[in-house]
Structure formats: C-alpha cells, structure tokens
Write a structure and sequence with these properties.
Layout lengths: L9 H14 L3 H10 L12 E3 L6 E3 L10 H8 L4
Antiparallel strand pairs: 1-2
Helix pairs in contact: 1-2
Length: 82
C-alpha cells in the first residue's frame, strides 16, 4: 500500500480516533472504510458470561448459533497439524 498524508483539524482527528476505537479498527483502516462508505458505528457488544455446568466457573457465553466444541470436534480440527 502507498502511504498518504493529509491535514485535518484536531477536533476531527480526535473524533475519528474515538470512532475507530469504538469500531475496533486502526485509525487508518477506519478512515479507509469511511472513505469507501463501509464504516458502521455500532459499539462492540460486551460478551455475556454464564456459569459453566460442570465446573461452576464463570465463562464467556458462546453464540447459540455455533456448534459446541467437543473432544472429537477439536481432534478433527487438529488432525491436519503434525
């Protein structure tokens, strides 16, 4: 990629940095996406936690649409590695 520099007002720069952080993007990625009209301003969701059934430890709740991990599924995923 080519580096481009430009002048911008200090208050706009502060706002862009704040918005980039809220979007979970670097400042340069935020500005690129904003120029292309791709930036969404939704604040990242805070992960929910639940109590694990077997251990009683508080863990991050998984997305209900994901298939749960099992020993067999992890072995299958790792089978390609030496």
């Amino acid at each position: 990629m080519t580096t481009v520099s430009f002048k911008i007002e200090e208050d706009k720069l502060k706002a862009y940095r704040r918005q980039a952080k809220a979007a979970g993007l670097s400042l340069s990625e935020f500005i690129r996406r904003r120029m292309d009209g791709e930036v969404t301003y939704n604040k990242p969701k805070t992960p929910k936690t639940v109590i694990a059934k077997y251990s009683g430890v508080r863990v991050f709740a998984g997305d209900p649409s994901y298939i749960p991990l099992t020993n067999e599924s992890v072995k299958e995923m790792l089978s390609d590695f030496p």
